[in-house]
Amino acid sequence: MPTNALGFSFGIQAREVVTPGALLRRLGVSPTPQLFTRSEQIWQSLSTAPAPLGPLPAELRNISDLQEHWIERLAFGPTPLHDRLAQTLAGLFAVHLSKVPDLGQFWQHLETIRQQLRGGYGQLLVAMLADPATLRNLDGLASHRKSPNENLARELMELYSVGAGSFQESDVISGARALSGYRLRQGQIVMDEGAHDPGPMRVLGKLASFDAASLATWLVSQPAAARMILTRLWRVWQGDLPTAANLNQLADQWRQKQLSLPWLVQRLLELPSQRRSLAQGAMVREPIDLMVAALRLLGSRQKEGLRLARLQLRAMGQVPFEPPSIKGWPADRQWITDSWLRARQRAMRSLVNHPELWESNQLPPMLEAHLVPRQPFSLRLPAPATKANLLALLTDPVWQLK
Fold first, then answer.
1. Whole-model pTM?
2. What gap in Å lies between CA 136 and CA 120, rounded to an integer?
3. pLDDT in tens, 186-211
4. Which of 2, 3, 100, 257 is most buried as measured by Cβ atoms within 10 A of its Cβ?
C-alpha cells in the first residue's frame, strides 16, 4: 500500500456512505450540508445558468487582487459549485497571466466558461475560440492568411479536441488557415475578412471553407475528441484511468448525449468505481480545494487571510491563473511530493496561527465528521471547534483527501 513521508495511505477502508457532501468534496466544493441536501439538487443546479459575474469589480486593480477575489468566491460563494467547475475547465483551457495581463479578459474568460456549464462541450469549445484570453494566450490574434500562426490550431487539436496521434501536420496547417484573421475590437473577437483565409481547406479528411466555429464543431464530432476530453476530466474527478474498453464505452454514451457537461459530471460521479472511491476518499485534493475548504471552515473573509491564502497557494504549486503549462494543472496523486506536502502542512498551520485571521473566525461549535471522507488519525470527529482541534484536523493526512 503506497505511503509517503507524511503518512499518506491509499486503499483505506470506507467509513461513510456517499452523501451530497462527499460529491461536492470530489468536485472541489467545500462540503456544506446546507448547500445541497440531496444529490439530485446538485445535478439540477448544473442544468441552470449561474448568476452572471457582472463587470470586473473596480477594486480589483492587479492580478493579486483578482486571485484573492477568486479564492474568496470559491470559498464563500455566491455560486461555489459553478465557480469551482469553471476553475476545473479553466485548467483544460489553461491561460497564464504572463500572456494575458488584462484583468478584464481573465474575468471574461471565467464568465464565458461559467455560462457554458449547462451546455455541451462543443458549445464551450466554440465559445473558447471567440474568447480574447484564449486567443491571446495561444497567439491567435496575430494570425494572417498570408502567414497563418499554427500554435492555436495545434493546441486546439492536441489539447481541446481529438488529441495527439489523431491528426497530422497537414491538419494543423489547414486548421491555422481556418483560424486566421480573428482580431480583438472593443473587447470582442471579430473576423477581419481581409486577413482570413476563406478556404477551402482539408481537415481530418473533410474539405470545407472552415472558420473557427465550424472547425471546432467538426473536431468535436470525432470519436477521438470525446475520448480525449473524457480522459482529461476523468483524471480530475476519478483519478486512475479505467480500461480502454470502459473509457470508450463511456465516451460513446457521452457523444449520444451531445457531449453534455452536466450529464458527464453526474455520470462520472455515479459510476460504481467512483462511489467506492468517494466513500474511501481515495483521491487527493488540489491545493486550491485544500485552501478553500480551510477558509470556509474558518469562516473568515478577512483581507489579510486572503492574501495569506494566495501566498501559500503559490508555495503549494497552484495559485489561480498561473498554470504550470498549457496542459493545465496536475491531478490526484501527481500532487503527492514530499516538498508540496510539507508546503501544505505549513499553509494550514499558517492559517490557524495567523492572529488576525483567528480573531475574525466564525467557526461552527463542532468540527463535524462530514468535513473529511473518513475519521482523522489525530482526533475523533465530531469534536469541539477549539484551536488545537482545528490545527489537528487541518494538518491530518485525511484533510488532504477528497
1. 0.91
2. 24
3. 889 999 999 999 989 999 999 999 99
4. 100
